[in-house]
Amino acid sequence: MPQASSPIGVFDSGVGGLSVLRALLAAMPHERFVYLADSANAPYGERGDAFVAARTHAITEYLREQHHIKALVVACNTATAAAIHEVRSSHPELPLVGLEPAIKPALAVTKTGHVGVIGTRGTLTSAKFGKLMASLADQAHFVVQPCDGLAHAIERSVALPVADQGSPVHATETGALCARYVQAMGSFGTAPGQMDTLVLGCTHYIFVAHELRALVGPGVQFIETGEPVARQTRRLLETAGLKAAPDGAVATDAPRTRLLTTGPVAMLQAAAERWLGLPADCCETVSVP
C-alpha cells in the first residue's frame, strides 16, 4: 500500500504537463513526483476517445505497479475528458485529480462577459466539456477555438536551441498557429463586446504565453489550471492522510522528481531543463504497453 513517502504520479500525452508539475513542485516542496510523458503517442487531442482511454488506463496501472504512486494527477485535459470517470471507478482508493478548461475561474474575473477558450479538438468536442459549457452558457459569451496542431508544434519547438526561439522556424511552428487561431476568434481587449479573458485549455499553451500575449494585448487575462490543480491535490492528500512529512522527500534515497517518457528522451530532457531547471539525468525512456 502507498505510504506518505510514496511519490505522486503525474502524466500527460507529452511535455505540456510539465506546466502542472511546475505548480505541484512549488506548492508541495516536501513531496516526491514521477512524471510520465506518453510522447510516443502524442498529441492525445488529435486521437480518438477509445485510444486515449486505453492509454490512460495503461499508464495508471504502470505508475501504480512500477512506482507505487499514492495519488495521480491526470495533467491532460483530453485524457481527463475521455477517461477520468472510468479510472476513478477502476481505482476508487486512489486520490485522483483531473483537468478541465478553467471556465469557472474565468467567469470570476471577466469584466466584459466575453471569454475566449482555446484547447485541443479532443477536449473541446468532448461530452464532458459540452456539459460544462451547457451549465454555464447563460453566464457569459464564450468563443471556443480548437487549435489543431498547436500542442504538437510546442512539443517540436522544445528541440530548438534557446537562441533560436525567435527564429522564423519557431515562428512558423508556434507563432503562426497562435496567430491563426487568435485571429479566428475575434476581438480581444477590455472594451465592451471584446474578450478580456482567455482560457488556456491545454497544458502546453502556457509555454507560448508570450506569443499569445503579443497577439491579444496586455489587458487580457490568461487562465490556466496548474495552481488550482496543485491546491486540489494537496487537499486530497491531507484528507487521505498521505501528505509527506516536511523531511519526507529527504528521508528516502529516491530522487525527488523522476521524469519518464515513452518517446525520445532528448525532448523531455530539453523541456525539463528549459521549463523546470531540472538536470538531464532525472529523465529516462520507458515502455508502457
Notes on the protein architecture:
The protein is built from 12 helices and 10 strands. The relative contact order is 0.20. With 289 residues, it is α/β, with parallel strands linked by helices. The two termini are 24 Å apart. The chain has 2 domains: 8-99 and 226-285, Rossmann fold; 103-223, Rossmann fold (3-Layer(aba) Sandwich). A 6-stranded parallel β-sheet has the order 4-3-1-2-9-10, sandwiched between helices. A 4-stranded parallel β-sheet has the order 6-5-7-8, sandwiched between helices. Strand 9, helix 12 (265-276) and strand 10 form a beta-alpha-beta unit. Helix 1 (18-27) packs across helix 10 (226-240), helix 2 (49-67) crosses helix 3 (77-90) and helix 7 runs antiparallel to helix 8 (168-185). It comes from Acidovorax facilis. Pfam families: Asp_Glu_race.
What key phrases describe this protein's structure?
single chain; 289 residues; alpha/beta; Rossmann fold; 6-stranded parallel β-sheet
